[in-house]
Amino acid sequence: MNCSKNPDFVLSGLSRDPEKWQLLFGLFLALYLLSLLGNLLLLLPIGADIRLQTPMYFFLSQLSLVDLCFTSTTAPKMLEDLWTSNASISFSGCLTQLYFFAVFADMDNLLLTAMAIDRYAAICHPLHYPLLMTPCRCGLLVVGSWGVAHSVSLVHALLLSQQSFYINQEIPHFFCDFGPLFQLSCSDAHLSEEVLMALTGILGISPLLCIISSYVHIFHAVARVPSAQGKKKALATCSSHLSMVILFYSTVFATYLKPTSTSHPPGELVAAVVYTLVTPTLNPFIYSLRNKDVKSSLKRVLGIESLWN
């Protein structure tokens, strides 16, 4: 088979049945628009209300911004493929999509870790919290996260750009991902795959261990609170974040924690849809529906007193 440094691919992960394309288009379009609306409505009160200018809401606003970009990396191309019935993508387009997908996925991971550190500082060290989570330190956490995400994604993109690929091949997915691309490589990709696995492992496991460690300390601190009301109040500040962590990592593990294969079973593709589209859509609603401060602020900003009543 012929090889090329700049081949075209076909994204074949979505249904091959034309009768389902309209249904899938409507479903994914609704999810995408709901994701945009939900994250924008969460950004609006956080940016407009000075009472929400705290580290927790600062990290939450960054997460909403990242989720807006995350869904916009894959959803428009997926909708275009369903609408035009043309799922082809150039190598440069594939590499660009993959680069930004990795950046925003890594940022989701790192911001959830920063939010866990913030909750740890607030619950375990409440007296020192203003000194621990200063605006400067919060800003450095976010800037450092962006730097790490872009650096790791750049390494991945550079490694892939050096590969040659079989021409006229199908990617059994609805977006470009590292695994399927390496499988289509006709070059020796062993070293590149090892580097990819090492960086992904470090960037995936380290934040998760940090989150677990933070919550171990949080639960230990809450257990020492004498009153049931005090325990409930302390845990209430973590419930939304913990829900987001569980949803994020469960779908990531379902998508990527598997043996390498040349095909993607339906269950795996469903997990990928949840990971790339459903989770970013649910995140703002998880926080807004459980947070009285966000709800009341959004009511004031929009002038809708009956919202969520």
From TrEMBL:
Superkingdom in the source lineage: Eukaryota
Protein name, as recorded: Olfactory receptor
Membrane topology type: Multi-pass membrane protein
InterPro entries: GPCR_Rhodpsn, GPCR_Rhodpsn_7TM, Olfact_rcpt
Gene transcribed to yield this protein: LOC103544313
TM segment ranges: 21-44, 56-78, 98-117, 138-159, 195-222, 234-257, 269-289
Gene3D superfamilies: Rhodopsin 7-helix transmembrane proteins
Swiss-Prot/TrEMBL keywords: Cell membrane, G-protein coupled receptor, Membrane, Olfaction, Receptor, Sensory transduction, Transducer, Transmembrane, Transmembrane helix
